[in-house]
Design brief:
Chain lengths: 595, 583
């Protein structure tokens, strides 16, 4: 089993954000480049008003007002007004388009992440608190919306503004323009210093947020245990500790993040002062009053985009702390995938063969199964018996290809299952697990999960065979009763009956029952027997030991111990052999006779 | 209660930060006036007036003021962040504490993903309100006021010509806020649905894979994902209706200043320098106008986010400690006095009906019955996870409702059917109910529950980290861990709800033997479907459709020839023809 991490353990990042990741981001933007261009166009057009503003003001102050030309002033104002109306229309278009691009991007990325999650092995989900996975799909992605839509477009428009302003400034006075740029290197150094600290701080923060989410998730999922053990006070204390870490990390991060702005602002003021100083030396010589005022207006127009670009960079650094987690999840390799040239497994008869199958979870971990070989004919019932941890569940997991074999071959109807598509393989297998998961929704939908196109009648028929109909009828809304995740208001036995009906409905060719009826009482189990017989009939079945009465009737019993098949055969043959099975059986017989 | 009066107590605890930050904001707004004033003065006095000697001191003031101003602003943004974080911490704390106090009925009807959305996404909107919207709104108001004052000093008619637009802006923002609230509420709802779906997909990943339902899940997800986008687009519809006109009105100020102010200058009623100064202050007037739409948006987002949080905080658990609960040392007598029970969501279908029994301290009671007969519900009533609909549950002769809930749960432990482990070490999980338990006691209890051996055989022994769903453990191992955890808690009343069903009979017998001595003084309830688990109980009841249909001891029940005897025969018979239970 992979090493787990706990809610309060920071996850180490496999790879920090790098330039390659920007290319990946670009990939998400690609489908929207047309829309992005339109949005950009609307911004630029809208910004004409902004750029025209100081120019019109200059014209007014330099020439029109000194010449007392009221008509020209009115004309100029009308032109101004028209540009504002154009800006209105542009702004309107931009809000809509940019929101849409941003939301589309989020949707694409979220779908990719979710789809990818579906391909990840059990080990991925087993090795970390679920809250830590959840936060990546939902919360982290949300943080990117603004950056990728508004932020990006503003960035481009800011660059263009910057260039246009620079051209205007150069056209008015190249000397003053050069003075305006003198302090830029200082700005770059300041930005760099901040960025290094900020990146670290936000990586730490994203970790703490993930931990908090994990704790909250477990706190809710385990609430009954907490209340049952009267540990509410301890849970709250532990929560406070995690929340406190979160608060500290947050404060540290914003303290760095917010330090960028004062630096930029002061540099901008210094530059303005410099222009006043230099400009006034030359007033009347090479610079007119109007020119100086217009120039100062442009300086503001110059610094605004610079500040915006700084802010964008700031948010980008923040976002990378989340992006790298998202990409990390996307890069998580699914252990089991369709191989190149995998084909669809045709409808099977259900003949199963294991040939010298060995398995370990990872190359550096101990081998769990050693050279397991057996054959199951189509329609046979195979029982797996053996002590806890012997490898029974592993055999079953390999059969459904939840893991790939390390050595050897698993074949169904003579076809190596590593060569077929997973979907076509698993669609023909029905696995009933010991831990029955109920989705929030109606009971009907939960049973229908086994076959999505089943009618209500099909569902009820399956529930009747599974002996679940009786108790479902007594529920407030019958099959339409809404149950919550984990089915808390249902007993363990009732949940197993629902899972049983679900599997029955799926009508698989190969059936796997993994300790599936443990929580069902003897009486119901006997009633269920008829249903079970119907379920087993005509399909290959693998049953992990529970009721010996079922095991006895199996066509073949495999006794597993320490990852090997130590015995196999029918009940009678194994009893006659006086081996491990006989001993197991005999011991229990004596237990019962002592009753 | 409106969202602001609700959030105020959380803010008030940080009033010193709030006051400090407010002072800084006011100072900053004053300082911000200086730069344009200086600009005007430079034009009037230095450029037009030729007093070049005044330039350097003026520039020095400009630089000094900017430095002071940016430092102040940095300080108050951080103060607001701290205030927000403190408030958020308290809100989260209260929510989490509330969650601990809510009863099973709440959790049976509320989805995990929904609750998570409250504690994460919704609190984020509150943070944004407290840490960002708050001071931006204050800044805007101050700028606006400062601009009005300074402008009236320069030229009153021109100022009035600008401020005349304000009611129009007020009208637009008012309309916008009314439309934004339901939209943001829908966004929050859609977010919660998305959260729930993903949460269940992750938790149920085994079922998804077992049924090869990945494509179906992705389809389901995409539907919600698209809906979330649609809800966000609905908000864009409102934004695009109101934000551009607000922006237009703000920019219109420049035109008015140019046209009217220019006219004044031409008419000789205003100096050019004053016009330039006036123009320099314009942003202080139009920036608040531009921002107003955004701020209203954010405020309504906040208001929408608090709706569900406030509802959760207002939820009243039915199970509470009475105002006058006498602390009491529990002996462990349990009496059911005409107890009936129906779940609140199905009051017409009683789960338990007229249950009567008494168990003396130290006695063991066995419960047999079919799936869904009401066995687990019966046990939930003892630990007061629910209150009976009719009748009374008495512990030591005192109504369970009169016990402090904490004492009750501290002394009564239910070993539940499905084991939930926290992602922590096995040792810490076992110690969950009794964190102070020392290592030797833990191991001793683990031995009683026949768990010591397999735990010791794990890679890191008791320090092995296991997860929420304890995957990788077999059913039998889970049950033994669950039992160990309950034993370490060392309660007066121990309830074993089908705790040994996945064990082989030998292990079960071994555990029972251990328990006979270890739990000799405890009151023990055993729910089981195997007769072997029940036969030694002091009394046994058989439940059917929520009623006690048989009661007695193993021997008397066998003699009665009812359900119990029938079950016994079945299990024995199954064995004779080839064995019943295995492990």
């Amino acid at each position: 089993m992979a090493k787990r991490n706990t809610y309060n353990e920071d996850e180490t990042l496999k790879q920090s954000f790098n330039w390659h990741d920007y290319a990946r981001l670009g990939h998400y933007l690609r489908p929207y480049r047309g829309k992005l261009a339109l949005a950009l166009g609307s911004i630029l057009l809208g910004n004409v008003a902004l750029i025209l503003g100081p120019y019109l003001t200059k014209v007014a102050i330099d020439t029109i007002i000194p010449h007392h030309d009221m008509l020209a002033l009115s004309l100029l104002s009308s032109v101004f007004l028209i540009t504002l109306l154009v800006a209105w229309a542009c702004y309107r278009y931009r809000i809509w388009t940019i929101t849409e691009i941003g939301q589309d991007l989020l949707r694409d990325m979220r779908t990719d992440l979710f789809t990818h999650l579906q391909t990840l092995p059990f080990a991925y989900f087993d090795s970390r608190p679920h809250g830590k996975i959840l936060i990546r799909v939902v919360n982290y992605i949300n943080t990117l919306s603004d950056l990728l839509s508004n932020g990006l477009i503003n960035l481009i428009s800011d660059f263009i503004n910057l260039l246009v302003t620079l051209v205007f400034m150069l056209a008015i006075n190249w000397r003053l323009t050069l003075y305006s740029l003198v302090l830029l290197p200082v700005l770059f150094i300041w930005t760099y210093v901040i960025q290094v600290q900020q990146q670290k701080a936000f990586q730490a923060l994203s970790n703490k947020q993930s931990n908090l989410n994990a704790f909250i998730h477990e706190g809710i999922a385990g609430i009954k245990v907490t209340q049952g053990f009267a540990q509410e006070a301890n849970a709250i204390n532990a929560f406070d500790a995690v929340a406190e870490e979160n608060r500290v990390a947050y404060m540290r991060a914003v303290k760095v993040q917010y330090a960028l702005w004062p630096g930029v602002q002061n540099i901008a003021t210094l530059t303005t002062a410099l222009i006043y100083y230099i400009g006034i030396q030359h007033v009347g010589v090479v610079v007119s009053t109007g020119t100086l005022i217009a120039f100062l207006g442009y300086i503001t127009n110059f610094w605004n985009p610079v500040i915006n670009i700084g802010n964008f960079y700031n948010s980008l650094i923040t976002a990378t702390a989340y992006l790298e987690r998202i990409f990390e999840t996307l890069d998580e390799a699914p252990e089991v995938t369709d191989e190149a040239g995998a084909f669809t497994l045709p409808p099977i008869h259900g003949e199963v063969a294991f040939q010298d199958v060995s398995f370990k979870y990872a190359p550096d971990e101990p081998e769990i199964l050693h050279d397991v070989s057996f054959h199951a004919g189509a329609g046979e019932t195979i029982a797996l018996v053996g002590p806890t941890g012997a490898g029974k569940s592993t055999i079953i997991n390999l059969l459904s290809r939840f893991y790939n074999v390390t050595d050897g071959v698993v074949a169904i109807d003579g076809v190596d299952i590593s060569r077929v598509t997973l979907a076509s393989l698993r669609a023909q297998m029905g696995v009933m697990l010991q831990d029955t998961f109920i989705f929030s929704g109606t009971i009907l939908d939960n049973i229908r999960y086994g076959r999505l196109d089943a009618t209500e009648e099909d569902v009820i028929a399956a529930a009747k065979i599974a002996r679940a109909d009786d108790f479902i009828q007594t529920l407030a809304d019958g099959y339409h009763t809404v149950v919550q995740e984990r089915g808390v208001s249902l007993s363990a036995g009732q949940r197993q009956l629902i899972a049983f009906a679900r599997t029955l409905l799926a009508d698989p060719r190969i059936l796997i029952l993994d300790e599936a009826t443990a929580a069902i009482d003897t009486h119901t189990e006997q009633l269920l027997q008829a249903g079970l017989d119907q379920l087993l009939k005509g399909r290959t079945s693998f049953i992990v030991a529970h009721r010996l009465s079922t095991i006895r009737r199996a066509d073949k019993i495999l006794v597993i111990d320490h990852g090997r098949i130590v015995e196999s055969g029918t009940h009678d043959a194994l009893m006659a052999a006086h081996g491990a099975y006989f001993q197991l059986y005999d011991a229990q017989l004596r237990m019962l006779q002592a009753l | 209660m409106n969202p602001y009066t609700w959030v105020w107590p959380y803010v008030r605890r940080n009033r010193f930060q709030l006051i400090g930050a407010t002072v800084l904001i006011v100072l900053n707004a004053l300082a911000i006036v200086v730069a344009p004033l200086l600009g005007g003065m430079i034009v009037d006095q230095v450029i037009e007036g030729g007093h070049t000697e005044r330039l350097v001191p003026m520039l020095a003031i400009m630089i000094g003021v900017t430095l002071a101003r940016t430092i102040m602003r940095y300080c108050y943004t951080i103060l607001f962040e701290r205030l927000g974080q403190n408030a958020l911490f308290d809100i989260r704390h209260d929510l989490f504490a509330k969650l601990q106090s809510l009863d099973f009925t709440f959790f049976n009807t509320t989805r995990t993903g929904d609750i998570m959305a409250r504690l994460t996404g919704d609190t984020e909107a509150i943070r944004h309100m407290l840490c960002w919207v708050s001071y931006n709104a204050m800044e805007c108001v101050l700028w606006f006021l400062a601009a009005v004052i300074v402008m009236s000093v320069i030229n009153v008619p021109l100022m009035i010509a600008l401020v005349v637009l304000t009611p129009l802006i007020g009208y637009l923002t008012f309309k916008m806020s009314g439309q934004a609230l339901p939209v943001f509420f829908n966004i929050r709802q859609s977010f919660a649905r998305l959260n729930t779906m993903v949460e269940e997909n992750i938790s149920g990943n085994r079922v998804v894979k077992a049924f090869a339902r990945e494509a179906y899940e992705v389809k389901k997800f995409e539907k919600l994902n698209r809906d979330y986008k649609a809800q966000n687009m609905a908000s864009a519809t409102i934004s695009r209706r109101y934000l551009p006109p607000l922006d237009f009105l703000a920019s219109l100020l420049t035109v008015i200043v140019l046209l009217l102010g220019g006219g004044f200058v031409i008419a000789g009623r205003m100096s050019l320098g004053d016009l330039v100064t006036f123009n320099g202050f314009l942003w202080m007037l139009n920036q608040p106008m531009r921002m107003s739409g955004w701020l209203i948006n954010d405020m309504q987002r906040f208001a929408a986010a608090t709706v569900k949080i406030r509802a959760m905080m207002a939820a009243k658990p039915a199970i509470t400690t009475p105002a006058v609960a006498t602390p009491h040392v529990m002996h462990g007598a349990v009496t059911f006095d005409h107890v009936g029970f129906a779940y609140p969501d199905a009051p017409a279908t009683p789960v338990l009906d007229d249950i009567n029994f008494t168990v003396e301290p130290g006695q063991t009671m066995g419960v047999l019955g079919e799936t869904g007969a009401g066995k687990s519900t019966l046990m939930d009533l003892i630990a007061r996870f629910y209150d009976p609909t009719t009748g009374r549950v008495l512990i030591d002769g005192i109504d369970a409702k009169d016990w402090p809930v904490h004492t009750l749960r501290d002394q009564i432990t239910v070993v539940m059917q499905d084991l939930f482990l926290f992602s922590d070490t096995i040792g810490d999980n076992i110690r969950y109910g009794n964190p102070q338990a020392d290592g030797s006691f833990v191991r001793q209890m683990a031995s009683i529950a026949a768990a010591d051996q397999f735990i010791a055989a794990m890679p890191d022994g008791y320090d092995t980290v296991v997860g929420e769903r304890c995957v990788g453990l077999s059913g039998g191992q889970k049950q033994r861990l669950s039992l160990t955890r309950a034993l370490v808690k060392d309660p007066r009343i121990l309830i074993l709800d089908d705790t040994t069903s996945a064990l082989d009979m030998e292990t079960e017998a071994e555990i029972q033997q251990h328990l006979a001595t270890a739990a000799a003084h405890k009151t023990v309830f055993i729910i089981a479907s195997r007769i072997s688990s029940l036969r030694h109980a002091d009394q046994i009841i058989v439940l059917r459709h929520g009623r006690i249909v048989e009661r007695g001891t193993h021997d008397t029940l066998l003699a009665q020839g009812g359900y119990y005897a029938e079950t016994y025969q079945r299990q024995l018979g199954a064995n004779e023809e080839g064995g019943e239970d295995n492990g």
